[in-house]
Design brief:
The protein is of the alpha+beta class and 185 residues long. The protein is built from three helices and seven strands. The radius of gyration is 23 Å and the shape is elongated. Strand 4 and strand 5 (101-108) form a beta hairpin. The mean pLDDT is 90. The strands form two sheets. It has a five-stranded antiparallel β-sheet. A two-stranded parallel sheet has the order 6-7. The termini are far apart.
Length: 185
């Protein structure tokens, strides 16, 4: 084996890698603004889902205040995350000015399809729409009908159920720390 037999394929491979890297960098430059716009639109749509009645949102200290057409604050939106079975679960929670959870959206997750991924379904998320006065937060229950302050775990995905609940409880705690002493506003 001589040096030419090694250097020539290595040089060709190097040129191919440089060309592919340049193509990826160019594609990233061309699409990054479009990707950022799509992410901003998705976030705005999610805020509208978790806080119905808000027509616009104002950023406030790491969360959003939802404002209706008359300029009144109707509630607040918090983004939190918790460790699930497959990785980090990011959750958006809406809390009305009167202190009830108005909606929950799972923004991203790496949970098992058909099990933990069911956290995105409305029948699971809608369980969280309840008052947040309970100082212990929302609890996860299995094999029994949930009462106020509880949600029913998804079958086969208790870890995911607890992770989403932990993220929602973080939002409730942030709301209580920021607004509970003010009566919501």
């Amino acid at each position: 084996m001589n040096v030419k037999e090694v250097i020539k394929p290595a040089a060709i491979l190097f040129v191919i890698c440089v060309a592919v890297s340049a193509a990826l960098a160019g594609t990233n430059l061309l699409t990054k603004d479009r990707i950022a716009l799509a992410a901003a639109q998705k976030a705005e749509e999610s805020r509208m889902v978790v806080l119905p009645g808000a027509e616009s949102f104002e950023e406030k200290d790491g969360h959003y205040a939802g404002v209706n057409g008359a300029g009144q604050t109707v509630g607040y939106v918090f983004e939190t995350e918790s460790k699930g079975y497959g990785g980090t679960i990011k959750v958006m929670t809406g809390i009305g000015a009167e202190g009830s959870i108005t909606g929950v959206v799972v923004l991203s997750h790496s949970e098992t399809p058909g099990l933990g991924a069911n956290a995105e379904k409305a029948e699971f998320r809608d369980q969280f729409q309840q008052p947040v006065e309970n100082s212990t937060g929302i609890q996860v229950v299995k094999f029994q009908a949930p009462k106020e302050g509880e949600i029913q775990a998804m079958t086969g995905a208790t870890i995911t159920s607890r992770a989403v609940t932990d993220a929602v409880n973080q939002a409730v705690e942030a709301y209580q720390n920021a607004y509970a002493s003010e009566g919501g506003n």
